[in-house]
Write a structure and sequence with these properties.
Order of helices and strands: HEHHEEHHHHHH
Radius of gyration: 20 Å
Strand content: under 5%
CATH superfamily of the largest domain: GntR ligand-binding domain-like
Distance between the termini: 14 Å
Number of helices: 9
Number of strands: 3
Shape: elongated
CATH class of the largest domain: Mainly Alpha
Helix content: 55-70%
Number of domains: 2
CATH topology of the largest domain: Four Helix Bundle (Hemerythrin (Met), subunit A)
Largest sheet: 3 strands, antiparallel
Length: 235
């Protein structure tokens, strides 16, 4: 179990909780903390150079979000990956985004600020495509969230964002391979073309295929990354 150490800072209490929360979440996302790893509040407090109070608040926040389990009197444990849970979230994404496409079919899209933003990002030449995985991952999230946002239903957009945040831990791995970055640019551009040409059913089918392929890729990559991380620790 490895938790990245941090320097001492004069954070306000709420800032310290946020800092510890983000640090622990990064440790989980980067596989420095592996599923099944156990640790105590004292271990975390020592490593992040903070008292147990903000550490406990950060840990309970991660527990509420499903990343950790708490065992009273015996510490904390990183939850195992539940791929069925993540795949169910991907399925809900498809439902919400398909509903958004149906709403967009009946809206004026010429000059729509969100649609124009997406066109400027994704309908670019190959030479203009970004290759940085973190940047493309963030833009991919924005593409899918923006489609729902553009449909004009605030509650749908809120639900979609909540799902997006829950699957981020594995979804971002889809962009660690260059072919997936190029495929994402092409597929997003084609989906936008279909939306703008009012070919809603075609857009829906392409979107479904796009998300399903991404779901399959991140499962394979996650399993590989976990295997490599465990081998590194055991060697």
């Amino acid at each position: 179990m490895q938790i990245a150490a941090s320097r001492k800072t004069k954070d306000r209490p709420e800032n310290m909780v946020e800092r510890i929360y983000q640090q622990l979440k990064d440790d989980i996302f980067e596989f420095r903390l592996l599923p099944g790893d156990r640790f105590s509040e004292n271990e975390v407090a020592e490593r992040v150079q903070a008292s147990r109070t903000p550490v406990r608040q950060a840990l309970y926040r991660l527990e509420r979000e499903g990343y950790l389990q708490v065992y009273f009197r015996s510490g904390w444990q990183v939850r195992a990956f539940d791929f069925n849970y993540f795949e169910e979230l991907y399925d809900v994404r498809i439902v919400l985004e398909s509903a958004a496409l149906a709403r967009l079919e009946h809206m004026a899209l010429e000059g729509h600020p969100v649609i124009d933003e997406l066109k400027a990002t994704w309908q670019v030449s190959e030479g203009e495509r970004l290759q940085d995985a973190a940047q493309v991952s963030a833009l991919d999230e924005r593409f899918h969230c923006a489609l729902v946002e553009a449909a004009g239903n605030a509650e749908m957009a809120r639900m979609h964002l909540e799902i997006t945040e829950k699957i981020r831990i594995i979804r971002r791995l889809d962009f660690t391979q260059a072919p997936r970055v190029d495929a994402t640019y092409s597929e997003h551009g084609q989906i936008l073309d279909a939306i703008l040409q009012r070919r809603t059913e075609q857009a829906r089918q392409m979107l479904n295929t796009h998300i399903t392929l991404s779901k399959q890729e991140v499962r394979k990559i996650t399993l590989h990354r976990l295997h490599v991380a465990r081998q590194r620790i055991e060697s």
